[in-house]
Amino acid sequence: MTQQELSSLFPESCRIGNLILLISPEQFYKLEGITIAGSRMFMMVCKGSLSLTVNDRPYEVASNSYFDVMETTSVRVESASQDLRGWCLFVSFEFASESLKNLRPGPLHYSLEHPHIRIWHFSPSEIDRLEQQLVLLKETIANPSHYYRRELTRVYFKSFSLELGNCMLSHQENPNDMPPYVSKRDFITLQFMTLVSKHFAEEHQIEFYANALCISTKHLTRVVKEMVGKTPHAVICDEIIHQAMALLEDDRIPIGQIAERLHFSDQGAFCKFFKKQKQISPMAYRRQKKTSID
Fold this sequence. Notes:
By secondary structure, the chain is an alpha+beta fold. It has two domains: 3-176, Sandwich (Jelly Rolls); 184-293, Homeodomain-like (Arc Repressor Mutant, subunit A, Orthogonal Bundle). Helices cover 46% and strands 16% of the residues. A hairpin with a 2-residue loop joins β5 (50-54) and β6. The protein starts with a helix and ends with a helix. The relative contact order is 0.10. The mean pLDDT is 86.
């Protein structure tokens, strides 16, 4: 479900149109059993624990933890402990852009850590500060008679984002070296990563992505290498391998079918690619995973 589809499950006091949806601890249980995709989502567990499946991989989120996902990531809320106190915040790109005005809350490469999510473990006092901002945000969204409701909502979202960025940076080395604003290189890299997450299965060549971004392959390579420490080709290969490994873990799917899904010319080409990336054949990887599970 997308942010817009989820909105129908919650009262109007939780949202402002399709701009923002804030799910507080009292409403969090409604997310159990739901798969969320195509939405920018922030999730925080203040107390208790949460079981998730993110891009077909299981995750356990303990108390005093935070994570968020991009629109290209799929998250299923499997179960929550009875004592869970959790928050979930959805925002549209337009709302976030308006609120932050190109500010960069948090580490430089934080938003580029796709496809894996990073679960941040904060101190109880840090979680308390973040929750205070969410409570203020909740009260503002729930008050439609407030003359400056939308403006104040943007202020409190910005306040939450900056408090979150401060928590993240306090857990980083050399936080003062982090530039406070998003640059054009950030936008290029983030757009590239988003395109890769959508098209990696059928588009393996850098030229496709450079053309989509209206820049040269040379410029794309230089920017991505500088921003994430990898070439665009390596980023594409990482996505393909990540998906291939997930598919190989299901031994009901023939390797030939995996090769077809990932748009390799044939099974041999896929096996050659996989072995080059992982130093092990797909069949050997599948046997290895099966043995470790048994």
